[in-house]
Amino acid sequence: MLSSLLARAFFLPSGLRAGETVPPAFSAADAAQVPPAAELSAGGALVLGVVEGITEFLPVSSTGHLIIASHALGLESDAPLRDAAGRTLRAGAPSARNPAGEPLTLKLASDAYTVIIQAGAIVAVMLLYWRRLRSMFAGLLGRDAAGLRLVRNISLAVFPAASVGLVLHLLKLDARLFSIEAVVVALVLGALLMFAAERWRRVRRPWPEEQGDAPGARRDVSDLTARQSLGIGLMQCLALWPGTSRSMVTMVGGYFCGLSPARAAEFSFLVGLPTLGGAALLKGVSSGPAMIAVFGWPHVLLGIVAAGVSAALAVTFLVSYLGRHGLGVFAVYRVLLALVLAGWFLV
User: Fold this and answer.
1) Reported pTM
2) Is 10 contained in some domain?
3) Which residue of 101, 177, 260, 269 has the fewest C-beta atoms within 10 A of its own C-beta?
4) pLDDT 10s digits, 217-230
């Protein structure tokens, strides 16, 4: 039974339901038996893994960086891919809405790749914050009050964006939000929000990092109230707009709730675990076999490892840096990135 469920979850192409016939153009067996349909070098896999791992947790928008990386690696083609026998590969089975099925393209596989390799970044954060996770588990067992409060806070912070994102996905509106112009605008507006939050923090909460001498300063992420956690969750809905950055809006929300920069970053990392994990799982179920058919297993695993190592380094750096300098330099970087994207793709 378990093997049957796993096979249905991970090896049926997107759009195929139990009991339906796998379209002759592409099957799960093809993903394991035929050579990769497109070339992704080891260097390309490393580049995508490193870019994803570093930018996923920094408040700089992973989307903007992955646009540049994918373009530089030539992974944006929408031309249908074919196997060695000349058959068109399909990412989705025929349906009433799309009788021909969804053709598999290099861009579709690349988009899935950058989401699925987030698994490495997730594992990195889990290892770095295993004490927090242990406390949360103990809280669920009734043995750690602070851990239970943290479970509540993370749940409330995840719920709004997850709900809205699911609705957008079911209505197939999420893809329509994406454009280079939208990403550029989000990068600039996000930078302005970060400048404002940093100014607010320095005026209203001028504490030395981790010394706790500012009146009302919160020392731990478990000290957030349910209302504040939900407020941060509502702010995360802004990150559904491509280029905004989930980590950025979470950190800014933490600022406004009285968290120090390092604690705001820590809360962002913890909230990202279920958010990124859910996205990687859904993408793995829907597009994993198609992605493997294009790039092959070795480069997928290489990207996961690269994302994990780079994410661990990025998280360690960010916590140390924020304690001394705050978010200002990242806001400046976002503006520069917006200029690069606009000059490269829009001019």
Assistant:
1) 0.81
2) no
3) 177
4) 446 899 999 999 99
Q: How would you classify residue 278: left for phi > 0, otherwise alpha for psi between -120 and 50, otherwise beta?
A: alpha
Among residues 258, 238, 260, 257, which one has the least CA distance to residue 248? 238
The predicted pLDDT at position 76 comes to 84
- How far apart (Å, rounded) are the C-alpha atoms in residues 70 and 218? 41
What's the N-to-C CA distance of the chain in angstroms?
A: 55
The rounded distance, in Å, linking the Cα atoms of 315 and 266 is 9
* 3-state helix, strand and coil shares in percent for the chain, rounded to the nearest 5: 70, 5, 25
The reply to whether 250 falls in a domain is yes
19 domain residue, yes or no:
no
Q: What residue numbers bound the domain in which 192 lies?
A: 25-346
Q: How many Cα atoms are found within 13 Å in the side-chain-facing hemisphere of 310? A: 22
What tokens were used for 39?
């070339």
Q: Considering its fold, how many domains does the chain have in total? A: 1
Tokens of 291: 């992605």
Task: Answer whether residue 238 is part of any domain.
Answer: yes
